[in-house]
Amino acid sequence: MTMNRALRYGGRVLALTATALGTVAATALPAAAEDQPTAEQIMADCGSGEGKCTFNSPKVGEAYLGKARQVSDLLYNCTTSPASQSMSWADTVGSSHSVGGSVTVGGGIEGIITASVTATYNYTWQSSHTETSNFTVTVRPGEVGWISRAQVMQRITGTWQTHYEDRKWDHYYWFVPDVVTGPAMNGTDGKHSAVMAKSRKMTAAEKKLCSSGSTRGEVFTRDH
Prior knowledge:
Blueprint: H1 3-6, E1 8-9, E2 12-13, E3 21-23, H2 39-48, E4 52-60, E5 64-65, E6 69-70, E7 74-77, E8 83-93, E9 95-97, E10 101-103, H3 108-121, E11 129-139, E12 143-150, E13 152-168, E14 171-183, E15 194-201, H4 204-211, E16 219-222
Parallel strand pairs: 3-14
Antiparallel strand pairs: 1-2, 4-13, 5-13, 6-12, 7-12, 7-16, 8-11, 9-10, 9-14, 12-15, 13-14
């Protein structure tokens, strides 16, 4: 459909004024009026394909190290000496955006962001990243150890533009500002993901587990 056809209404061509364009804030707006959608409603139409959407003018921010989180089982040392054990770990970090929560892998939103960032910066944006490996953890007597990992992250700001074939909420076009946060490649902007061993003292309840006959004087693990 040509632009002229898209803007033809009531037998005449309309200019792209406030009657044809709408802007929705990144945060949810009250749906009190029929002609004012929420940002989530606009994004749902982008994901389903009802609205023909683009992610305009993406700007990639500087990479940073995300918050460390537990990625392994817990290792309890019920012995009287320090204990070391090799533990496997797995970590999957996804993407989210300020408008609608997580970015679903394989969903319509993911493809639009990927195409926009690739065209602008000539590199492939990844909405999800998974790593697995092994790491040796040393735990002192009476303590609990585990493996934590922090992923290199990046934020991308941009504006969603939705084009409807027919007016919706009294507009052909809606614009929604958004911030997408997702994993970045290791080494981006000199930042590197980190894997580390963590430990803490056992709680009273955990010490009771150590004093039971089945675990006394042993090192044992428990799902995190």
